[in-house]
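Protocol check, entry for the methods section draft. Step 1: assemble the input record (protein sequence plus ligand SMILES). Step 2: submit for complex structure prediction. Step 3: store the structure tokens unaltered in the notebook. Ligand used here: NAP. Step 1 record:
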Amino acid sequence: MKAMAFPRYGPPEVMAMADIEKPVPQENELLIRVHASTVTTAEIASLTGSPFIARLATGLFKPKQKVLGVEVSGEIEAVGASVSRFTVGEQVFAYCGFNGHAEYICMAEDGIVIRKPENVGHGEAAAAVDGMLTAIPFMRDKGDVQKGDQVLINGASGSIGTFAVQLGKYYGAHVTGVCSTGNVDLVKSIGADEVIDYKKEDFTSTGQTYDVIFDTVNKSSFGKCKGALTEGGVYLTTFPTLPVMVRRLVPGKKGRKRAVFHAAGLRKPREKIMDMVFIKDLLEQGKVRSVIDRTYPLEKVPEAYEYIEKGHKKGNVVIKVSED
Ligand SMILES: NC(=O)c1ccc[n+]([C@@H]2O[C@H](COP(=O)([O-])OP(=O)(O)OC[C@H]3O[C@@H](n4cnc5c(N)ncnc54)[C@H](OP(=O)(O)O)[C@@H]3O)[C@@H](O)[C@H]2O)c1
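Step 3, stored output:
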């Protein structure tokens, strides 16, 4: 089968189409014919092997996994003998972690895979997995976003950001999105009550305070945002900066302003599967939609990573692996 592989760490050019063995499902596995995967910003570290510390997980001298692609949507082509929850022909979407940029993937039936909502295409379904599985624990669990809260999302036009804005509205918050001029209309279109254009205004110096500031793209700091938090407000970040990690070791008094980093990717599979069901419901009800910036064919995956490396994608970038 065709896959986009990378034999060594490096820039997107190190990737090349490869003909690799089609996987055979084990007893408890599903063989999924992949229709769509995506390219995500977090994967750049796995591709380049930088920062070096990331290699502790991905392989010290060369990548352990040769095919990227963390989320997929597709159709079940075969099932192992003991599989009972899925049947051939069903459409599913999944968090696979690696190996999404290939024509086929095998996943355990109790993996992070569930039936795809019928009202969205494979590209939209695949694109909703990683961004939502990250935005949900931040907004719901760490931010405890409630009706009437003032919530600010920095990086509101990115993958996590576009989902965080929509989740904030779902939980009944007053949501302010921060993005650049060209993305103001997009962020309004997904429901933000207010949009701050960071090219024109610094959200930390408007005088407005927020119960939750969620910096999805690591472009601010707790120190700078503290003045824009309400008493007891929380600053959330997707990136483990030293000051935030040090604060984690020194718990502040109750009711104080807090800074929280969370490694959403390290949550237990069980929790992620439950959130997949929640994502499916939200997509079905039209409460959340995936923003798709561009779609590339499998052969153009390196170009897709080159594009997202620049740091300005809008929502998600989809890879069309095969026809729907
Ligand atoms: N902690 C976790 O568990 C976890 C899980 C997944 C990902 N992550 C990390 O989360 C981060 C965000 O991921 P993502 O996929 O959402 O990123 P993304 O989609 O690549 O974010 C791109 C967006 O960032 C915006 N942006 C760039 N500079 C900005 C600035 N100065 N102020 C505000 N917005 C700015 C861009 O908007 P403009 O074009 O308008 O500038 C663009 O729309 C990544 O670093 C990723 O590694 C963490």
